[in-house]
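Hi there. Long-time user, first ticket. I'm pasting a complex I've been working with (about 662 residues overall). I'd like to know whether the download I got is complete or cut off, because the file seemed smaller than I expected. Thanks.
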Amino acid sequence: MMRTLMSTVGAFALLASAAQAQDCLTEPGTIGFLPKLDTDPYFQVAREGAQEAADEIGGTVIQAAPSQATAEAQVEFINNLVAQGVDVIAIAGNDANAVAPALQRAAANGVRVISYDSDVAAQARSVFVNQALGSSLAEMMLQSMADMIEEGQFAILSSTPTATNQNAWIAQMEEELANNPDYAGLELVTVVYGEESEQINQQQALALAQTYPDLKGIIVPAGIGLPAAARALEEAGLVGQIQLTGLAPASLIRRYIEEGSVQDIWWNVSDLGYLAYYAAQAIAMCDITGETGETFEAGRLGMYEIGENGEIVLGPAQIVTPENVGEFAF
Amino acid sequence: MRRPDWISGWDAFICIVTLVALVFGLTAFENFGSAFNISQMIAGASERALLVLPMMLLLITRDIDLSVASTLALTSVVLGLLVQSGVALWPAIGLTIIAGAALGAFNGVFVTVVGLPSLVVTLGTMALFRGIGYMALGSGSVNILPQGLLTFGFTNVPGTFVPWTIVPFLVLLPIFAIVLHRTVVGREIFAIGGSPLTALYSGIAVNRIRFGLFVFSGVTCAMAGIVYTARLANARANNAFMMELDVITIAMLGGVSVFGGKGGVVGVVGALSLIALIRNLLGINGVGGDAQSTIIGLLLIGALLAGTFAPGIVARIGAARRGKTGAAAASD
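Hi, the file is complete. Here it is re-exported in full:
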């Protein structure tokens, strides 16, 4: 029994290696985008970018996604895309490891795989189109805070005490504060958590204002938190007294950014879809394979080089200010 | 040809609709009939297929188990932790099944000994079991699993398009069908659903059977947990999130009555296949998850309406026809 099983695995592996020698397309093919969640506006905007790229160089964009942001639901859609005969799957993974076997099976059936927005296990995709390097985000949030308040007390309103990304950013900010003379005038008074809840974020923002009468700013590195904190401060009449910056879709806080009391670190989501489409077609036509150092051209965004671990970085995130807020559709 | 007594009119109807959907899929879409698609469609239904069996029995006895998906998740976490701590695969599987039985017994005690409604008890354990899973493993996951388990999760029975993950269900199904429709225990289960008091006074050990069904539910959920862990190469606490609702939908569409006492294996297997078929046909035509759910929802409502009004309409047509033939006979 076990031997038959093992030989099946062998056959499976063989199939996979045979598929890697698949033909290269001579013209742009069909790219199946598989975001985390159906009807999520973030991914709808990314799709518009992909469509813009398809209009430029040809080929087809299709997009379908589950109604629940789980790996299991995504596996069904990976299989659907394979059955539909797409040339490349571009996935934003709900779970890096749990979708990997299904993606490898897709590869064994002649479909190439890239990831965008949220990476999957590296052996299951050729390249990852990353929106921004995490380390640059922490630096930019701190820089934005320094630009707004110049010196004085500020606090951090994070998502949850166990959030991996946020904790890494906070640690990096603390290190910068301790070592970088540019930020000598800034004092981090406390880190509190909004628990990914709009209400808790609002309460925490107001509690910070009451506890620290001299507080001049709050950094909110979480998408739900920044708009919630902005609303809470507005209702309490504290806008202008306490400055906010952080990480959130620019469209959700456009009004506050225009008023000048809030800044934001964000990226152009439409460009993310645009770049992912160019990368997927470059993979399909064998212009790139995912090796570090390979380069390809991505339309109006120019040349891109594949970095370590198959990563393609869209570019540095931008500090969204009243001057450039109009450029951000999401 | 007379229909056997264990196939109701509804069962036959669902199976015919399923068959029509299958033939339609095979003829209308060339990418539907590929071995890859058929095999992955079956694999995708593996856990629901297992979970719907105990759910069906519990519904027939007027109980319900809302904790099936959470039990699946917790047993998946148990399996992951056992394997991670170096327990060999087969003992780990055995312990996982025992854990499932214990979780089912936990539900069973509250329902039959304490006497609380199963809806409330399992609503509680639905949150409790998944919560324990999160406490044990956090939001992380175990994804380094033994090769034997992964092979089971990813490959087909050699020479066929039948995925290994559906095999536990295929083994369990005939035994299950015979026990339900051809043995004393099966009859007692229907009797309890028909009228618990009458069953009790007829000498049926009502609570012992109900308790047994909860333990059976726990064991089957653990099997589904193992299958799920293998198929997604991943043990984590959010596995099979909200799957209990899918399972209840399948049972209802399969003709299992919420009021107890009614249901059959044929209808449920038909409904299981029908939902998998519809989701797949929509999926390979690029229809997203939200629209798929909408269509499944409409299907269930439609089925409920048909189930409620069709018997009356059929009876009326029958009566009209009898009236006509009766008149014809009289004129002879």
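A couple of notes from our side: Chain B is about 75% helix and 0% strand. The first helix of chain B runs from residue 9 to 28.
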